[in-house]
Design goal:
With 272 residues, the protein is of the alpha/beta class. It contains 9 helices and 10 strands. β1, α2 and β2 form a beta-alpha-beta unit. It is globular, with a radius of gyration of 21 Å.
Length: 272
């Protein structure tokens, strides 16, 4: 009787392993034929974990990363997605709007970048935003004095500039940081410095000016930014091209971001 139970247990374990193996093969097979990846809402570490296989393994001749509407989200996750989009030659299509980390890292990564008639690209700071390092230091100081935070703390003007949060670490968060070679025990300052290093390399490979996400916060535009009356700034096509954003195609033959409902909440910036 005992021998029979042992055999059944072994067979059960083998069956579970076999099913797991077949599931992995199935997912890989699905990823091979993936030709569209879509993002709606915030970009998170979970977004990266969900789309990584499709972006990296697809063998489709035409591949499009579609942003229906995104306010941005996690900068590290957006950068990691941008790296995969660029490395594996995906196009990027903006349907409604692409803001913050989405505009900073997703849009520039596309092989061809498609804009609809009323699409909006909204920028409001990148890794080199002036106050980000100070925010990171404050979050690290708070963690060292209090230990693991009981609840998430966010610093910065939400939806008006780049912010930083000490959110709980998930499995997807660990996978994301491993992808960008950020050690598990990194402080917020360490993560920010790693983000800066990776984004510098990313923009260099794309031939994009690293001032893209922050130019509208500097010089003559600084008082407008620091009034915090606006959710961010937009560029016109000529400025985007001078900043190194190439291969932009207009889905409807024209682009009028000023007709987007969110336009009154933004200010326009012209890059010399």
């Amino acid at each position: 009787m005992k021998t029979t139970l042992k055999i059944l247990a072994v067979l059960g374990a083998v069956g579970i392993l076999w099913l797991g193996y077949k599931f992995v093969l199935f997912r890989r097979d699905v990823d091979r034929y993936c030709d569209t990846a879509t993002v709606t809402g915030d970009i998170t570490p979970e977004t990266f974990a969900k789309l990584r296989g499709c972006l990296a393994r697809s063998l489709a001749p035409k591949k499009t990363f579609v942003v229906t509407a995104s306010d941005g989200g996690d900068n590290v996750a957006a950068l990691a997605l941008g790296i995969l989009i660029h490395k594996h030659n995906w196009d990027v299509e903006i349907v409604d709007y692409c803001a913050s980390a989405c505009a900073t890292f997703i849009f520039p990564a596309g092989k061809t970048k498609y804009l609809h008639r009323h699409s909006m690209l909204l920028f409001h700071g990148g890794p080199y935003q002036e106050n980000l390092l100070e925010m990171a230091q404050k979050l690290d100081q708070g963690s060292s004095m209090q230990g693991a935070p009981a609840q998430s703390v966010t610093l910065g003007q939400v939806n008006k500039e780049n912010t930083l949060s000490n959110t709980p670490k998930s499995i997807a968060y660990g996978e994301l940081h491993q992808f960008l070679s950020i050690p598990d025990a990194s402080t917020m300052v360490d993560v920010l410095l790693a983000l800066r290093k990776s984004s510098d390399q990313f923009y260099q490979e794309l031939g994009v000016n690293p001032l893209l996400p922050t130019y509208g916060q500097l010089g003559e535009y600084e008082p407008i930014y620091k009034s915090y009356k606006y959710v961010g700034f937009i560029y016109r096509l000529d400025s985007l091209r001078r900043l190194g954003i190439r291969n932009i195609e207009l889905k409807d033959g024209e682009w009028h971001p000023e007709r987007h409902p969110g336009y009154p909440e933004a200010y326009e910036v012209k890059y010399p």
